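ok, trying the design again with the full structure, not the truncated one.
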């Protein structure tokens, strides 16, 4: 199986994510049934690099699904976004200086599915 570094290089070669790349990403990321911190960071790096490009619509779906899984299906705070997770997400979203449509969809999905939605994340939706 490819490393995340190899995968990132291949994915970003043409600057957009197509449907076949989304399928490959999903297979690699969910191979063990969960998203870990390294994979979540990787997804944000990819999203920042392809934001605003003509990506296949399934990229957004995978991004939202994977980050939601990372935050809400963890062992420490299942169904909740704890303070560490909220701060991590806030930093990831604000890190590139913009909140793109994919990140907005992620925030809205988390708001709809988490037991609580932290105030610092709510501020990103305004």
């Amino acid at each position: 199986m490819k490393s995340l570094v190899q995968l990132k290089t291949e994915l970003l070669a043409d600057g957009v994510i197509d449907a076949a790349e989304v399928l490959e990403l999903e297979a690699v990321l969910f191979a063990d049934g969960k998203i870990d911190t390294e994979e979540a960071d990787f997804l944000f790096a990819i999203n920042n690099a392809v934001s605003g490009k003509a990506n296949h619509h399934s990229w957004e779906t995978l991004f939202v699904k994977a980050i939601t899984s990372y935050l809400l299906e963890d062992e420490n705070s299942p169904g909740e976004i704890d303070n560490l997770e909220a701060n991590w997400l806030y930093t990831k979203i604000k890190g590139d200086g913009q909140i793109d449509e994919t990140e907005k969809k992620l925030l809205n999905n988390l708001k709809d599915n988490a037991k609580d939605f932290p105030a610092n994340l709510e501020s990103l939706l305004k």
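Keeping the full-length input from now on. DSSP finds seven helices and no strands in the chain.
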